[in-house]
């Protein structure tokens, strides 16, 4: 009876906002499923084609594409927040103005960054950075150039997905992402069977999502044209507001990238590409849990913002509590399964034994649990633009975490690295946030959006 009553309550998670999250989450699940298929199916083909050494370099290069998420200097997330707030207030003219300003700003950012890269690119020893011998300097440089060019293109193209999430149309963006992952899977596996080179396989892995991102951007333009407005909005402060909000997100993203995305480049530099490849397999397996939970976090963020702008306080509080409890429970169960069944799962996946320390696997399992709790809170705080505390904690965490990982990797190998993340994140970021959470929630509910 209690379960029936819960479903029958108005304004529960399954209200129109909850259904918006579920619809976007469902398509996000399809996109992530395609990404997981791409990850799990492509890895053994590339590993067998390139060998352990070049596979580690390939995994490192492909992982660098995630840096495009913060090279927009947070402007994508800043634009999404402003779009979601204007949409929640039912102000379509401001929605169109924010989108137009965000597109202009990110295009300029991509052009500036491209100029800097063209100047610096010839002077970098790329084969050393990805752990390959000097005899592979030319293919290493070519592969790195392909990755960097893709990152520059992705900076403005990624805005379409953020804006559509802000408009409550995330399902459209995720459809294109799914198509991009399937296209990449087909290209990579086919070329790996043909024993293509490192640059060709790198290009195949990262070019297909760019093609579908272009299609997504074109669809956004049609979506904007369909938004009817009675009058245009002229706000000279929009660009400044987007830059200010975006800069805060950029600092937060940069600190997270230092802590979370630097593992493989750091291992390649300090331990070699082969260790990076072994670590990448375990990291990607447990990372599937985080990818699964992002099915909720990504669409929930702008819906939080819409609800805050519409003063739906009860829905916000109830959703925050339930999402945190559900996420930590799911992460704990799946982390335990992956840690205990790691040999069997990896054997089925890459068709070879991978002897990794149980201590490292336990570290990954613990990490996914505390990451789930922290992300559930951070999603709410990001939507509320409560950034000051997050930035202070994230910067301290990023500096301490990368320093500890460098020392650990140099002296003790790769096994303790997940525990370095667990210890620094729990002590520097998560515990202080939990202590101050009640005050932060009061601040979020009393702000004007």
Notes on the protein architecture:
The radius of gyration is 22 Å and the shape is globular. The chain has one domain (13-446). Helix 3 packs across helix 10 (238-260), helix 6 packs parallel to helix 9 (198-226) and helix 15 packs parallel to helix 17 (417-446). The chain is mainly alpha-helical. The longest helix has 48 residues, at 16-63. It starts with a helix and ends with a helix. Helices cover 82% and strands 0% of the residues.
Would you spell out the secondary-structure blueprint of this structure?
Blueprint: H1 2-8, H2 16-63, H3 75-88, H4 92-120, H5 126-129, H6 137-157, H7 159-166, H8 170-193, H9 198-226, H10 238-260, H11 263-270, H12 273-309, H13 313-340, H14 342-350, H15 358-383, H16 388-412, H17 417-446
The amount of beta strand, in percent, is under 5%
Query: Structural class given helices, strands, pairing?
Result: mainly alpha
Number of strands: 0
Give the helix level as a range of percent: over 70%
Computed CA radius of gyration, to the nearest angstrom: 22 Å
Helix/strand order, N-terminal first: HHHHHHHHHHHHHHHHH
Which shape, going by the Cα principal axes?
Answer: globular
Residue stretches low in confidence (pLDDT < 50, at least 5 long) are 1-14
Discrete helix count: 17
Mean pLDDT: 83
Query: How many domains comprise the coordinates?
Result: 1
Task: Characterize the main sheet.
Answer: none
Distance between the termini: 38 Å
Transmembrane segments: 21-43, 55-75, 109-130, 142-161, 173-192, 198-218, 247-269, 281-304, 324-346, 358-384, 391-413, 419-437
Subcellular location: Cell membrane
Keywords: Cell membrane, Membrane, Transmembrane, Transmembrane helix
Membrane topology: Multi-pass membrane protein
């Amino acid at each position: 009876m209690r379960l029936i009553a819960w479903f029958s309550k108005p304004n529960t998670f399954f209200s129109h906002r909850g259904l918006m999250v579920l619809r976007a989450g469902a398509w996000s699940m399809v996109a992530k499923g395609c990404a997981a298929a791409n990850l799990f199916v492509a890895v053994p083909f590339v590993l067998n084609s390139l060998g352990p050494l070049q596979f580690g370099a390939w995994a490192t290069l492909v992982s660098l594409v995630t840096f495009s998420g913060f090279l927009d200097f947070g402007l994508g997330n800043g634009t999404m927040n402003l779009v979601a707030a204007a949409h929640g207030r039912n102000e379509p003219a401001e929605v169109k103005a924010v989108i137009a300003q965000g597109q202009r700003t990110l295009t300029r950012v991509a052009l500036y960054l491209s100029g800097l890269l063209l100047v610096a690119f010839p002077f970098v020893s790329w084969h050393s950075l990805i752990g390959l011998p000097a005899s592979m300097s030319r293919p290493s440089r070519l592969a790195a150039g392909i990755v960097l060019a893709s990152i520059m293109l992705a900076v403005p193209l990624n805005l379409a997905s953020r804006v559509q999430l802000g408009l409550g149309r995330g399902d459209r963006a995720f459809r294109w992402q799914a198509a991009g992952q399937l296209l990449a899977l087909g290209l990579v596996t086919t070329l790996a069977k043909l024993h293509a080179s490192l640059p060709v396989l790198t290009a195949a892995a990262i070019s297909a999502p760019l093609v579908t991102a272009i299609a997504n951007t074109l669809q956004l333009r049609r979506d904007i044209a369909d938004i009817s407005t009675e009058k245009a909005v002229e706000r000279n402060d929009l660009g400044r507001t987007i830059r200010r909000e975006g800069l805060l997100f950029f600092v937060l993203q940069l600190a997270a990238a230092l802590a979370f995305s630097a593992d493989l480049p750091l291992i390649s530099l300090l331990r070699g590409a082969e260790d990076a490849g072994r670590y990448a397999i375990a990291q990607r397996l447990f990372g599937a849990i985080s990818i699964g939970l992002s099915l909720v976090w990504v669409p929930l963020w702008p819906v939080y913002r819409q609800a805050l702008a519409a003063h739906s306080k009860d829905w916000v509080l109830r959703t925050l509590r339930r999402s945190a409890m559900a996420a930590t429970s799911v992460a704990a169960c799946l982390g335990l399964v992956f840690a205990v069944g790691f040999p069997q799962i990896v054997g089925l996946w890459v068709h070879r034994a991978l002897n990794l320390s149980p201590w490292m696997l336990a570290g990954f399992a613990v990490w996914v649990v505390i990451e789930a709790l922290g992300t559930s809170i951070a999603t709410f705080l990001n939507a509320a633009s409560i950034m000051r505390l997050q930035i202070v904690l994230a910067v301290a965490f990023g500096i301490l975490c990368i320093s500890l990982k460098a020392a650990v990797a140099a002296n003790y190998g790769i096994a303790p690295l997940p525990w370095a993340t667990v210890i620094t994140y729990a002590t520097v970021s998560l515990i202080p946030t939990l202590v101050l959470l009640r005050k932060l929630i009061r601040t979020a509910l009393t702000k004007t959006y």
